[in-house]
Amino acid sequence: MFIILNIIAFILVFIGSLNWGLVGIFNWNLVDAIFGIGPNVGTIIVYVLVLVSALWLLFSIIYNKGVLYCCNKQLDRVRNTNTNTNTNKKEK
After folding, report:
1. Which of 1, 8, 16, 75 has a C-alpha 20 to 30 A away from that of 25?
2. Using one digit for the tens of pLDDT, what is the confidence trace for 63-75?
3. SS3 call for 68
4. Is 26 exposed, middle or buried (0-12, 13-18, 19+ CB in 10 A)?
5. Nearest of 75, 76, 57 to residue 5 by alpha carbon
6. Tens digits of residue pLDDT in 39-87
7. Cα 25 from Cα 36, distance rounded (Å)
8. Percent of the chain scored above 70 by pLDDT?
9. 16 C-beta neighbours (distance < 10 Å), count
10. Domain span at residue 33?
C-alpha cells in the first residue's frame, strides 16, 4: 500500500516541479494553461495534490528513518538487514 502511495506521490511532485521549472525559466504556468488563468477548482485541486504528495513523502521518510520504500527488493533487503543486526546483537 505504501509503495503505491509513494509512487503516486513521486509522480505528482515531479509534475509540480516541472510546472515550477517552466514558470521559472519561461514564465509559463502549465497548470494555468490547462485549467485557465486564476484560481479555479482545477488549479486548486492540482496544487493541493502536489502539496499533499510532498508532505506524504517527507513524513514517509521521517517515519521510516530515512528509507523510502519504492520497490519490494529494497523493502526485503532492509528487513533482512534489520533481522541480521538483531540476531547478531542477541548472539553477543
Report:
1. 8
2. 877 776 665 555 5
3. coil
4. exposed
5. 57
6. 999 999 999 999 999 999 998 888 877 776 665 555 555 566 666 555 5
7. 20
8. 73
9. 18
10. 2-91
